[in-house]
Amino acid sequence: MEMGNGAHALGRSVLIMFSYEKRLEYPIKITKPNAQIAQVIMSQYGGPDGELGASMRYLSQRYAVPYREVAGLLTDIGTEELSHLEMVATIVHQLTKDLTMDEIKEYGFDKYYVDHTLGIWPQAAGGVPFSSTEFQSKGDIITDLMEDLAAEQKARTTYDNILRLVHDPEVCDPIRFLREREIVHFQRFGEALRMVQERLDSKNFYAVNPGFDKNSR
Questions:
Q1: How far apart are CA 57 and CA 153, in angstroms?
Q2: pLDDT at residue 217 is higher than 70
Q3: The pLDDT of residue 149 is above 80
Q4: In the chain, what is the straight-line distance between the N-terminal and C-terminal CA atoms, in Å?
Q5: What burial class does residue 155 get, using C-beta atoms within 10 Å of its C-beta: 0-12 exposed, 13-18 middle, 19+ buried?
Q6: Among 138-152, 183-197, 201-215, which stretch is predicted with the lowest mean pLDDT?
């Protein structure tokens, strides 16, 4: 998924916000269904530190950012998180699409099955549904970037936990890729925070909102 350029439709010039490539950011090919693993991986789809919350967090925060470079970074990372959401959904789908009814019951997937069959639905590994209360958009760039740094570390920790539980190489390979991207995002947000701090009075950059306290910018 990437930013698009202008195009023509019905004889008029229109702006395409995104163009969609019909391929995953990283290839996924899982050949063995496993309901237990699917229930673990599902947490990174709709869990408290998952990709759905990450994408909504960054794409929401960008509007209140007073610096274009940081708003652009939030747009880039938020868009990439949508592709990661697609990857996690693909992993769960490939782990569940060929399950037998006996396997569904044996591995405790029956509770999910009764509500969603084998559809993909955002919830944590413990079954808690996704909620927008799991992320914040505060309208203060220092506050939001601090949250973003913590969010990337929490996601990386979750992927670490998954890798301790899962040993199927077909699953672990894309999970390692996703984990690496969390580290890159953490580094990028750290760079953004330093850039913002350099534009503020060093004596009070933890005490003002640069979007409103104009004299501190």
A1: 15
A2: no
A3: yes
A4: 34
A5: buried
A6: 201-215
